[in-house]
Amino acid sequence: MSEDAAAAQSAIDSAIANANAAEAAGNHAGRIEAARAALALKAAQFRPEPQANPSDAKGASARLAYLEKDAEFRQAFFAGHPAAREEFDRLNQLLANADPIERALTGAGRSSSEAESGSGTQSMLKDEISFVADGRAAEIPDEQLALILKHRVGTEADMKWAQQQLSAIYAQFLRVPLAQWPPAARRAVTELAAIASPTETE
Questions:
Q1: Residue 15 CA from chain centroid, whole number
Q2: 12, 106, 122: which is closest to 61 by C-alpha?
């Protein structure tokens, strides 16, 4: 256990001890206050505050998600506090400037201020993130996932790999009606087919 983790656990244990002592003394108000403190410390331990000055989309996404649930920040933001507005704008700018494929690979989801867009073969970011998770579960390397997401023409090795993946998917769902295929499998077939049999070059 790291020093920070040990210190956090010590603070939790102390708050619990204070709650128990207050209860033993019949101090119900003190017990409630100490118990609330213990719960707050425990929550902070499992959901630590994200880095305040992230340098990438993943960090910016995590920070925005945290701030959107922070009542004090929301109050300052809607009151037009300059520091809150500046942080909000800076974090959203980090997301706007990030490579969308990198966002999908790192799980940097959209903030509530970003509008989802995409239709047809241009999927929404949340679908891309889900696809990456499914692909990793199937042990597909990140470089191949990136190739699928970019809709790029790959090398001969990439095309051979895509054909092998298609064969494996078709074999797995050979006796399953297409309508019953998992969404991830249908998406994979579409994207893999584009790599296995490219019709255009970059």
A1: 32
A2: 106
**pLDDT value, residue 134:** 83
Which two tokens mark 138?
């199937």
- Give the tens place of pLDDT for each residue, 95-119: 888 888 888 888 887 777 665 444 3
Instruction: State how many domains the chain has.
Output: 3
Inter-residue contact 125 to 100 (CB < 8 Å): yes
Q: Hey, is 136 helix, strand or coil?
A: helix
Together in a domain, 140 and 80: no
Structure tokens given for 137 = 């579960």
Under-50 pLDDT residues of the chain: 1, 116-123, 200-202
Question: What gap in Å lies between CA 116 and CA 133, rounded to an integer?
Answer: 19
Q: Tell whether pTM > 0.85.
A: no
Residues 182, 139 share a domain: yes
CB atoms within 10 A of CB 64: 24
Q: What is the pLDDT of residues 51-81, one digit of tens each?
A: 888 989 889 988 998 898 888 999 999 999 9
**Does one domain contain both 169 and 184?**
yes
Does residue 201 sit within a domain?
Answer: no
For residue 184, the enclosing domain spans 125-196
